[in-house]
């Protein structure tokens, strides 16, 4: 009954634990038949959750799982196929239509991102945000190889428009807060400094970052 705890005997709990991997509908039916009870599947499902009993099911298809309808042609009115299935599905060779035709940009198109970086369209794949890439990243990697994990590029002249590889330096991403002037802007920001001073700012930020990393390292205990 709703609002009241359902009591189970020790024998019933033993049975429920031993058979917890059964599908919930079969689980409830078998339990009610075995003990002449009338417990709803939802109540037994809640019991399994309270007890922390695992069923071994994650709700996901396992790797290598084949769908039940694999290789079955879509025929209207046959099995679970709706009569309108063929009329509404994509047809082979079917291209863009409607507004998509007007909005489409071919691969190689260039634009300025909302952050002010020149970008180039590199593919038509999904997700949509993966179709465009900053041109300075493309150019730099073409000349120097992939950007290592934990690193990024910083513009030497402080602008975003100059995409020449020589204008971009590889730095650790952890240095960006210091080069932006610090949390409270108490230091000279990289983009506001004279070009001759900028290499010094990078060197100072690198030294400070290495010092912080060293302080975080556990101290070694020297045995006497």
Task: Enter the CATH topology name of the domain at 105-216.
Answer: Homing Intron 3 (I-Ppo) Encoded Endonuclease, Chain A
Class from secondary-structure proportions = alpha+beta
Oligomeric state of the chains present here: single chain
Estimated helix fraction: 25-40%
Care to count the β-strands? 5
Q: Supply Rg.
A: 31 Å
Main sheet summary: 3 strands, antiparallel
Q: Which descriptor suits the 3D outline?
A: flat
Task: List the strand order in the largest sheet.
Answer: 1-2-3
Kindly report the average pLDDT value.
86
Q: Compute the number of helices.
A: 8
SSE ordering: HHHHHEEEHEEHH
* N-C termini distance: 71 Å
**Strand residues, percent:** 5-15%
The CATH architecture category of the domain at 105-216 equals Alpha-Beta Complex
CATH class of the domain at 105-216: Alpha Beta
Poorly predicted segments: none
